[in-house]
Write a structure and sequence with these properties.
The complex is a heterotetramer, with 2 copies of chain A and 2 copies of chain B. By secondary structure, chain A is α/β, with parallel strands linked by helices. Chain A contains 7 helices and 10 strands. Chain A has 2 domains: 70 residues, 2-Layer Sandwich (Defensin A-like), CATH 3.30.30.60; 153 residues, Rossmann fold (3-Layer(aba) Sandwich), CATH 3.40.50. Chain B has 2 domains: 89 residues; 319 residues, TIM Barrel, CATH 3.20.20.440. In chain B, the strands form 3 sheets. Chain B has a 9-stranded parallel β-sheet. In chain B, strands 1-14 form a two-stranded antiparallel ribbon. Classes of the chains: A alpha/beta, B alpha/beta. The complex binds cobalamin (2 copies) and pyridoxal-5'-phosphate (2 copies).
Chain lengths: 248, 526, 248, 526
């Protein structure tokens, strides 16, 4: 695409910019609060902003529902779409790809790290049973997968990766409150670098609030968000291995 | 779920409503209106316009201006056709062009012309029958899902945007699409012509807009393998004309209430009741399901205190519908979920009311309206209100289920509002699909008690109306707390006493066929 | 207030800026749509914006729920709070005020104009019964009020105002789709000016989507939104009459 | 609403669970753990810390390091008190300061010391009894509304922000506030000290945080005229200590499950079951209501297929609770609304399950958990799921009702999320307040059939567990599809065989009183 393609939010007519907002303000409900909410909406680029609802939530707090027409538009032709696993292969293609391009079984070590105890996400990717009707990596004949489970310290994960000669390390982070995942994910990268193996592995993060962009910023090769399927992850790993010539 | 109701009271209600309807029929029998006459011309094929003015209006106005409408527009147009060997459309064109003076021609005696008029009516009747058969065939091929059928409105004001929104709604699971009318159309004494893109709070009802939307819905229906029904508003000063256009363009449902225009648009009651009868006859013949407007009472009156007026009005609408040849499956009798959400045990009363309607009119599909007046800018709470409404509907087996919009208090629906409404309704109705079959109402409990109370009040109310007649009841403000005088309101000037020799060839032919069908219904067990 | 008092939206910590958005974009759901939605959120001033939900709505449209932290803040000390009826009197005070400062009954003519048929709002202000347990203006001994009902053409309203020697004209507009209320409200002002009586009356608009600001912009003396009570309106009218010396 | 259940099967379930519980009690009778011992020290008044390390840990670690914990920490501290004429707190201080070597002192013979230890335990027992009386008085003065009680969590990680959110929630109508714990706390083998402001996904449970929140809730409760209950988590490696702290600071409820730590935190099963018994005894004595964690099974397992494991676990939790001296009104047995919302007639199954629990445990308040795993970023649909959950709860008469948050899949609750949750729940529950009393379940229908099926499966499941014992059942992965080995998991090293002469003066005294109360209960009809 080279020609510009600008779009706006849509309510009931093209480019009407219709957007709904809700938020709480730390001020008692009343004319001042209403004016503040409107002002905020205007700063966000809303025209014809209307306070559809204002209510006191408790002493010193009020809640708002706002509708308005957002003047901002997005040029689709200039967007950078960065998402891992865009071109996925299926179960058979992936195994064939490994056989053909790498020629040996690959090793994948996975864990939900830190104090995070949410295993369902990483289990969905790794375990036999899989997710959304797709097998997990354990079931792939050309993949050895180890799932270390939850609340795994980064140090333990690194040690296991070394022991298993991991080609790929998969980290799940589900709890993100107060950005706890950021130092945790960062620490792992630092440990791998200290260990001198960062460049030898495909390093992948995932979780409901993980985006590809965030993961790359933190020094990962890819990030996978909600709804990820095993084969998206496997496709990425094997392509990345071949591209970076990690298979030997 | 079953309520134990007093069947004697139910009979009383029906008997009173029957008397009310019979009185109305007596009154309207020898009258016509400009709108009825225009509808006849439209069915005769006069659907063009000259300089934006519909030919039907030009011709009827010309006849009325001469004070000759009492023989019926069909007589004058038919006379010209026969005298000149022209089609009705050609006659209308010439009248509009000022090339033909209907009154300058020689005249057949009215009675002499009637067989010819019946002849002239054939193609119109045939076209309607074809549309009906078309619908039946499509429904057989593209069956609809289980009731409650999900009904959403589109209301952008622009028929082209309406199409986008309607097709999207169908994809999201809507069974029925209503194109809401622009404000003000109901008070126009003509039906605008052509495709329109500039309504407010709705889109003009025009024959071309009907066609455009019908085509769009057929398209998406084929794609989805489900027939998508199309609805418009057969009310206001052009009620019968819109019925005619809807019949010609295969609409499937029509908002059509005996009293709505009187109460909420201040249209003259004589005019409305006459128009209503012919429009319903056309709807009946076209196999169209009508939606009555009892729900509107509750947008101004209190839903707990005035619940019985809804029930009473349903009985009246039922009897007037029967009188116009409609069959029970065509009666989308209206009611609504409008009790103050902050009332303790309000849901029990809603269930009582919904179940009462269900039981009183077992064969009617029932049109169930969502909460509107208690919807606020709090879209979240509103979404939940709609959730309990959806639940009540599936629990009590309603037929035509209008979806509430979380933004009801804010704007006519956005695409996402409709998407969320459909998603919510599908979730609740699927998740509670057979709940109504698994629960029983405690005998002698609050729910049953409430239903019995509403029924008793409705019976009393109907007895009073039957006593004084519908006109007097309207004058006394017995419905929706609105008082209307017999000769007040808009459109009385369009009411005309029929002369000896008057002829409405469509009404005659349709009525004959419809009576026959009703007689067959009567033979079947209820 | 002279000292600045900046506030931001509040989620679970002061100044976290937590805001919820939802909107539809005219593009099929997918990575491109997701990127577009994020871009829009960023333009609106959201940091850490996250697409909590993306779903196809129909061919060519997708719907989004977005959470993020809005960087905009509002300085409460600099807000202009323009709302009519801020200092309201009660029923008795208003009647006393008229008796004392005007010395005669005042005349109020009200209507829901144009093709708008929503009478509940104007009835709430005018009719005996009133609203929220407050009497409507009809019940005020020192006010003569005429409610013309719905779908009243502007010309008919002007004629009635002249006939009743109106001190105040109240207009309700509920249907606002495609901004139909704007030309309708504007036309009334023009007619009153043409008639030479605009300056002799207190001109007030109201309705669920009418704000004081909008009304003033259109040439009205005040605008009243959802939840307005009769005495707020009456308070405004009588104060405005006295201030503009319209009572003689 | 009443289900027709097979009472023989119900008795089988109880008998099997009783056997399971008795086996567990046999196992734990002669064992203690570091956490139990620390809890004893806390009840003896040792609640300070040195350089952030709790004195209770320092003292217990010192004793354990010498391999002398098998006489009980009370013995060693009591011995020192008696020898030196110091308070337990003073003894602990000196130990921490390295000024006192407990093992260098002369020793009373264990049995000789027991009366003195009972003496030493008095003030702690008294303080708990005072708190309990305080609660009873406040409840009489500031009565709570009707059940289901609305329970919300605060989880900012910062106790000061938690206070803001908790008070706001109370103002909005919450009856119960739970302060969620930070991730990772359950695996700490100590209870952090002081006020804390840096948790993740929750706030540290500390005595000072308990105090701060208790005060804040008492304040807002007085203002609102309603007692607001406070909840924390009595689980993980410090289960009994937290029970002690909660009892001392007048918490009203405690999350406390026999199996949760084993299954979901991989804590050793021996350790957990011993800790569980003492913590429950303390809860019982403090008049605290426990909340069990059966709902957690359904966050990973399928709620339709595994429903019977919830029911079975409720029976086990009930019997273990009885064994620890809890009375039925203190048993907030857990269950959850976790069936896939897209399942046809799923709501019927939810109603069946909720009603089954209600009927099996008629005196228990029952803790009902909202949908969590089927919540997505679609906050609108999620809000509606919570709506049907709220409805099911009021319909089936649940006691402790956890509110679902529309942002469940996104973040820990914001102020507005909680506001909307409370508003929604109040609306639904008020609007449907007595619906359950007006409806009956169709005999032999789907709902009843489902409840009977779940009961039958639970009975079979319990019989198998009773047969092999709880430990073996856990080893075989019979609960939540998680396999745990008897000697695996965290914390086994903290388990200690009691020696001859071991003494836990609190357990003895509390148990005696609690047995007495239970005997009185037994005299009352169920
Ligand atoms: C189930 C659950 C639990 C279970 C976990 C059981 C288990 N064995 O995992 C239990 C009940 C134990 C639990 C406990 C807690 N939970 Co929890 N829990 C959830 C819940 C309901 C569902 C999570 C889930 O299973 N999703 C399904 C899986 C399949 O989706 P997913 O994780 O997104 O994974 C997919 C993708 O993200 C991706 N993916 C994930 N990881 C990875 C890794 C890689 C390498 C790749 C490539 C892809 C990938 O692929 C997966 C498949 O598509 C969510 C709410 C919700 N509806 O989302 C809360 C939630 C995650 N929990 C939360 C919290 C706070 C907790 C607690 C900390 C609360 C407390 N203080 O007690 C505790 C403690 C847990 C701890 N120490 O971490 C919060 C997190 C808030 C935040 N954003 O920080 C949530 C969002 C609820 C909330 N709104 O408060 N929880
Ligand atoms: C009741 C109702 C009706 C009733 C009206 C009955 C009647 N006699 O008024 C009926 C069923 C007839 C109806 C019909 C239609 N309606 Co309507 N209706 C509503 C509804 C449900 C409630 C309005 C109401 O009564 N509010 C209660 C009153 C007390 O509140 P209020 O009007 O805001 O008034 C207060 C203040 O605003 C203020 N105020 C109002 N006026 C004035 C004037 C002055 C001078 C002052 C000082 C103050 C003031 O004071 C009042 C008291 O506090 C709303 C949805 C909703 N929940 O809000 C839709 C709504 C207003 N209707 C709407 C529409 C589109 C229509 C139709 C055009 C649909 C159609 N195409 O068929 C029709 C046609 C009507 C027409 N020609 O105008 C839309 C308007 C959308 C928009 N923003 O443009 C709404 C918002 C619904 C929707 N989401 O689509 N409607
Ligand atoms: C029966 C009926 N007719 C008509 C309408 C629409 O109004 P109008 O005819 O003024 O467009 C409604 C509105 O809901 C209605 O219920
Ligand atoms: C019974 C029980 N205990 C404890 C917890 C909390 O987990 P943790 O003990 O890891 O903080 C939960 C979570 O919901 C629970 O249900």
């Amino acid at each position: 695409m080279t020609e510009t393609k600008r779009i706006k939010a849509y309510g009931d007519a093209l480019d009407d910019g219709a957007v709904q907002l809700s938020f709480t303000l730390p001020v008692d409900a009343g004319p001042l609060a209403r004016a503040a909410a409107l002002n905020l909406a205007v700063q966000m680029g809303l025209e014809h902003a209307e306070i559809a609802y204002m209510t006191p939530v408790s002493q010193g707090f009020s809640f708002f529902v706002v509708y308005g027409r957002c003047r901002h538009s997005v040029d689709l032709s200039r967007l950078q779409v960065a998402e891992a696993g865009l071109e996925e292969m299926d179960f058979f293609e992936i195994n064939d790809y490994i056989k053909e391009h790498i020629g040996r079984k690959i090793n994948v070590v996975a864990a939900c790290t830190g104090t995070d105890a949410h295993t369902v996400g990483i289990d969905a990717i790794i375990n036999m049973k899989g997710y959304k009707g797709e097998y997990g990596l354990e079931r792939y004949p050309w993949i050895n997968a180890w799932n270390m489970g939850s609340q795994v310290p980064n140090a333990a994960l690194v040690a296991e990766a070394v022991r298993r000669k991991a080609d790929a390390i998969l980290v799940s982070q589900v709890v993100t409150q107060r950005d706890i995942h950021i130092p945790n994910l960062t620490e792992l990268v630092e440990m791998l670098e200290a260990e001198g193996i960062r460049h030898k592995v495909v390093l992948v993060a995932g979780g409901p609030r993980i985006s590809h962009q965030l993961a790359v910023e933190l020094g990962y090769d890819a990030g996978f968000g909600p709804g990820t399927t095993p084969r998206q992850v496997a496709s990425f790993i094997v392509r990345e291995m071949v591209q970076r010539k990690l298979g030997n | 779920m079953k309520l134990n109701l007093d069947s004697g009271l139910v009979e009383n209600c029906r008997a009173a409503a029957q008397k009310i309807a019979a009185d109305v029929q007596d009154f309207i029998r020898d009258k016509t209106t400009v709108a009825v006459e225009r509808a006849i011309l439209r069915l005769l094929g006069i659907n063009d316009a000259a300089d934006g003015v519909p030919l039907a209006n030009i011709v009827v106005d010309a006849i009325a201006a001469r004070g000759e409408l009492n023989l019926g527009a069909a007589y004058w147009v038919g006379n010209a056709c026969k005298q000149l060997g022209l089609s009705p459309a050609a006659v209308a064109q010439q009248v509009a062009a000022g090339e033909l003076d209907l009154f300058a021609l020689p005249r057949f005696a009215p009675e002499e012309l009637h067989p010819y008029l019946r002849q002239l009516a054939r193609p119109g009747l045939q076209r309607i029958a074809d549309r009906r058969r078309e619908r039946e065939e499509m429904l057989a091929r593209l069956p609809m899902g289980p009731a409650p059928w999900l009904y959403v409105i589109v209301a952008t004001g622009d028929i082209m945007q309406d199409v986008v929104q309607a097709q999207a709604a169908a994809e999201q699971g809507a069974d029925i699409i209503a194109v809401i009318r622009t404000t003000g159309q109901s008070l126009l004494d003509y039906v605008p012509h052509g495709a329109t893109r500039e309504g407010f709070g709705g889109t003009y009802a025009t024959q071309e807009n009907f066609r455009i939307m019908r085509k769009a819905l057929d398209e998406v229906g084929e794609r989805l393998g489900r027939y998508i029904m199309l609805v418009n508003y057969c009310s206001g000063l052009c009620m019968p004309e819109i019925a005619a256009l809807g019949a010609l363009e295969r609409l499937d449902m029509m908002l059509n209430d005996a009293l709505y225009g009187i109460l909420f648009r201040d249209i003259n009651m004589q005019r409305t009741l006459i128009d209503q009868n012919f429009s319903r006859t056309i709807n009946a013949y076209a196999g169209i399901i009508i939606n009555t407007g009892e729900d509107n009472y509750l947008t101004t009156a209190d839903a707990v205190a005035e619940a019985h007026t809804v029930t009473a009005s349903q009985f009246i609408n039922e009897q007037l519908a029967l009188a116009a040849g409609l069959r029970p499956w065509q009666m989308g009798l209206g009611h609504a979920f409008e009790i103050d959400p902050d009332l303790e045990d309000g849901l029990l009363l809603e269930i009582a009311q919904a179940l009462l309607a269900r039981q009183l009119f077992p064969q009617a599909p029932l049109k169930y309206m969502p909460p509107t007046k208690h919807m606020t800018g709090n879209i979240f709470k509103g979404y939940l209100l709609n959730g309990l409404f959806n639940l009540t509907s599936v629990l009590t087996g309603q037929g035509i289920h209008l979806l509430g919009m979380l933004t009801e208090a804010i704007h006519t629906p956005f695409l996402q509002d409709r998407y969320l409404a459909l998603e919510g309704a599908k979730y609740v109705m699927n998740n509670a699909r057979h709940l109504g079959q698994e629960l029983e109402i405690r005998a002698g409990g609050k729910i049953e008690g409430r239903a019995r109370e509403v029924l008793a009040k409705a019976a009393e109310f109907l007895a009073r109306v039957a006593d004084i007649g519908l006109f007097a009841a309207l004058e006394q403000g017995m419905f929706a707390a609105v008082k209307r005088s017999r000769d007040g309101g808009k459109g009385l000037e369009g009411v005309v006493m029929q002369a000896q020799g008057y002829c409405n060839p469509f009404l005659e032919e349709m009525s004959t066929e419809l009576r026959e069908a009703q007689r067959n219904d009567g033979n079947k067990a209820d």
